[in-house]
Amino acid sequence: MRYDREHRRRRSIRLRGYDYRQPGAYFITICTYDKSCVFGHIVEGQMQLNECGQVVQEQWISTAKVRPNVELGAFVIMPNHLHAILIVGPAVGATRRVAPTNPPRGPARGSLGAIIGQFKSMTTKRVNLRRGTPGSILWQRNYYEHVIRNEKSLNAIREYICRNPLSWASDAENPARSDAVGDDLEEVLARISSLDW
C-alpha cells in the first residue's frame, strides 16, 4: 500500500493562528506513553505519588523557578497524566542574541510548546535514571492545551484539576475505570470552551 502523506497527517490540536509565545494562561494535560500508570496510585480520593511521581512534581515546580516569565497555577499529577494551569508572562530581562544562520527546528523558544518539550525531556531523563530504563519513552508524543480566556473558565478548570483525584474511578484516562462512562478530556475542554465567551 502506498503511503499517503495527506491521509496520515496528524490532526493539530493547536489554536490556528495563535502565537503560543504571547502572554496568557493555559490549561495543559500531558499523558504517559500508552497511558501507563507510573506516577503512583489514588487512595481514598487522594493521589499518592511514588518516586517517579515525585520526580515529575519536582520538575514541574522547577519549570517556574528557571523561567522568570512562567507562573504555575493549580496542578495535579495523576497515575498516568498531569493536569496543570501554566501562566506565561512577558519575558523579563531579555538578552540580545545573534540571529541563527539556520532556522531552529521545533517549537519557538519561550513558547508553550518549548516549555512543555523541555519539561517532558527532563522528566523522562530523571525518571529513566531512577527506574534504570535508559532510552525508554515516558510521555505520549503530544499534549492537550486550552487557552484560558476569562475568569469563569479559569475557575472551572481549577475546580476540575482539584477534583480530578476524586473522580479517578470513572476518569477516561484510567485504564481500570469501573464504568463505561467517564469524563473524556475533549468533552471537558468543550464544556470549558463554552465558558470562554
Give me the strand/helix succession: HEEEHEEHEHH
The CATH architecture assignment turns out to be: 2-Layer Sandwich
The helix content is 25-40%
CATH superfamily: Transposase IS200-like
Q: Strand order of the main beta sheet, please?
A: 4-5-1-6
Total helices: the number is 5
Shape: globular
Report on the biggest sheet: 4 strands, antiparallel
Please, what is the average pLDDT? 81
| SS-based class | alpha+beta
- Output the CATH class name: Alpha Beta
Alpha carbon gap, first and last residue: 46 Å
Please give the radius of gyration in angstroms: 18 Å
CATH fold annotation = Alpha-Beta Plaits
**Number of separate strands:** 6
Number of domains: 1
Beta strand %: 15-25%
Which blocks of ≥5 consecutive residues have pLDDT under 50?
3-12, 92-104
What would your notes on this structure say?
A hairpin with a 2-residue loop joins β2 and β3 (46-49). The N and C termini lie far apart (46 Å). The chain has helices spanning 5-8, 51-65, 112-131, 151-163, 185-193, and strands at residues 24-31, 40-43, 46-49, 70-77, 81-88, 144-148. 20% of the residues are buried. The chain is globular and about 40 Å long. It has 197 residues and is of the alpha+beta class. The protein is built from five helices and six strands. The chain has a single domain (19-90, 107-193), classed as Alpha-Beta Plaits (2-Layer Sandwich), CATH 3.30.70. Strands 4-5-1-6 form a four-stranded antiparallel beta sheet, with helices on both faces. Strands 2-3 form a two-stranded antiparallel ribbon.
